[in-house]
Amino acid sequence: MRLIIPKISNFYHVSLYVCDEFISTIDALQVGEICSTHRVLDKLLLKYLQYGSMPSWNKNGSACFSIAMGIDSIPGVNTLLQSNLRILYLFDAWPDKHTRIEKIVKHLKIDLLLVSSSQSASMLQVRLPRTKVLFCPEACKVEEYKCKPLIDRKIDLLQLGRRYEPVHKALIADSGLNYLYQKESGSLTFASQDLLKQGFADSKLSLCFPKTMTHPVESGGVETVTNRYFQSMASKCLVIGKAPQELIQIFGYNPVVELDLKDPLGHVKKILDNITDYESFIEHNYAILKRDHTWLNRWLFIRNEINKLS
Predict the structure, then answer these.
(1) pLDDT score, position 11
(2) When you count CB atoms within 10 A of the terminal residue's CB, does the N or C end of the chain come out lower?
(3) How many whole angstroms separate alpha carbon 89 and alpha carbon 108?
């Protein structure tokens, strides 16, 4: 069956480059056709699909695999509607969106729904008994990330995106720590994907916490591994903070140095003073990431599931 993958038409937020990494991986394999999309049309169709199904016109005999950051930004909705087999991969599937996801997936008649949270996958499968719902964690295109020797990195600590405030407040108390973080909620630490990769490559430590800690109400109790853990390891940063249980499960061990929450600043200083002691751990994380958690790994898993439905 011919496979069509809708391409994101407008990179209005840097997070969408995560989707593009996956699309470019599939495109390089030449296993399907990348089609253009129209963001305005997609938004109009999604607005309608909140309330009901749409007729499937001019079925093209193809499978459509759409990769979306969230339920409100699905690319290629019209292509999905014309396809015989409909596959959707959602990165953001937090519980507050589950009702909306349920409606749109039902009205789009999605055959296979993939989400990057195991807990959300289980919850959505109950809501969507006619759709196959599977957990598919995020990943990264390892070869596109840069690495420097730890001793040549200028940033001591990087906290990308949402902050865990109790730890953040303790860390900013030390003006001698070269600590880079999001200055205001909603602002970008790096304005482009290239700058983001340079920032990771120039950072010794990457501070990561799950949303259950940074925004417990918004998380709805769902703890999941997000892309910044993989990006950090691809850049050979030492990841510190808290590992989501999902990350421990898919790696088979904990690849994160769990931060002492009672004395985060003291712990960070101790790690920095002994950073070379962690080089073998960093290299091991990188090797496991490269072997098991690239977008190619995810595509091979998804392709197998598509073949089961074809």
Answers:
(1) 67
(2) C
(3) 13
Q: Residue 257 is encoded by which pair of tokens?
A: 């140095």
Sheet holding 112-115, edge to edge: 33-35, 3-6, 63-68, 85-90, 112-115, 132-135
* Cα separation, 304 vs 230, whole angstroms: 23
- Cα of 119 vs its chain's centroid, Å: 15
Average pLDDT score, the chain: 93
Residue ranges with strand state E in 179-299:
179-181, 203-208, 238-241, 257-258
- In the chain, % helix, strand, coil (3-state, to 5) comes to 45, 15, 40
Is residue 18 within 8 A of residue 290, CB to CB? The reply is no
Q: Is-above-0.85 flag for pTM?
A: yes
For residues 82 and 58, the answer to whether their CB atoms sit within 8 Å is yes
| CA pair distance 88, 90, nearest whole angstrom | 6
Spatial distance between the Cα atoms of 212 and 253, rounded to a whole number of angstroms:
20
Q: Which residues of the chain are under the pLDDT cut of 70?
A: 11-14, 56-58, 186-187
- Determine how many CB atoms are found less than 10 A away from the CB of residue 165: 10
3-state SS, residue 84: coil
Q: Residue written as tokens 């990561």?
A: 208
207: three-class secondary structure by DSSP: strand
- Pick the closest to residue 231 from 143, 103, 151, 125 (CA basis): 143
Longest dimension (CA), the chain: 64
Cβ(255)–Cβ(237) below 8 Å: no
